[in-house]
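[Automated response] Your request has been received and processed.

Submitted sequence:
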Amino acid sequence: MRSAKDFFRPLAVGAPAPPHEVPFRPSRMIHFFDPGNEKLAAKVPALVPQVDVLLGNLEDAVPADRKEAARTGLIRIARGTDFGATQLWTRVNSLDSPWALDDLLTLVTEIGDKLDVVMVPKVEGAQDIHYVDRLLAQLEARAIRDGLPLRRPILVHAILETASGVANVEEIAGASPRMQGISLGPADLAASRRMKTTRVGGGHPGYLVRADPGPGDGPRATFQQDLWHYTIARMVDACAAHGILPYYGPFGDIQDVTACEDQFRNAFLLGCVGAWSLHPAQIAVAKRVFSPDPHDVAWARRVIDAVGEGGGAVLIDGKMQDDATYKQCLVVAGLADALAARDPELAAAYAAASKEAAR
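Generated structure:
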């Protein structure tokens, strides 16, 4: 058994020390783009100020004959773009593919100083994270030796896309200090589970509950249920237990922004910090949903001020608040502070709501 003391030592001589705590940076939307598509690549500079995370996708959406072009395109974009406070991620190909090793070998040594996170698809257990962890350390050490100004370790993000991955989600979340977070991958997960849906995320009209019969023969109300509630809740618990971040994945119906917003909000309320955006229309949805409402932030700050750390129960507007609600409000206010530091419009909205609540 590996000693706990060794957990935060580099896995290769000359590699950066692993982080002791995952830095929280706003990541309300992880916006995917194909770096091998010149038309989409040309839009990257305009996207940078709009999103929290830009992700160069090398995996499923890229055909086999364009894998190398996508990888080369990501290197060119990373070198030629000023990302400012926006994070640059990549989703590499699955570890059982013929491209994954070259993805990591090339990207870490060429643009490891620009990459914040490597997203690993179809993670089935801790063994997959251990493999990537060691390889990243070796490649980081090589990059530093060759003069790349790499000052911090590249983090790892796992996608839950198989039944085995969900069954092992707790050990995946705690497999490495590099673990940044986990995303739900509903399409591949549905196939792995043999679920009878061909939708990418979201609900299904056949997955419902029906009201009991009433008097007469009138129609009985039905209520569509959430296919992903169990998986998201389990993923959130695993991430919270290990100090990493949970995300909803893709919502495939680009035109149905209403259902997309509903699904994102369910995930937000359950504890997710962000979701994937596959189209610019979803950027605004994710920004709106994963930013706390200004009135909720103002209320949270009122509770924090009234209860205080270690305080007892108090009544605010006729509602009982105590240490438990104080802790809940710290989550909301802390997220608002982090987002306000990046988003001037949100900062102004939060300040105005707090000022109004104080009157």
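Summary generated for your ticket: The radius of gyration is 22 Å. The mean pLDDT is 92.
If you did not submit this request, please reply to this message.
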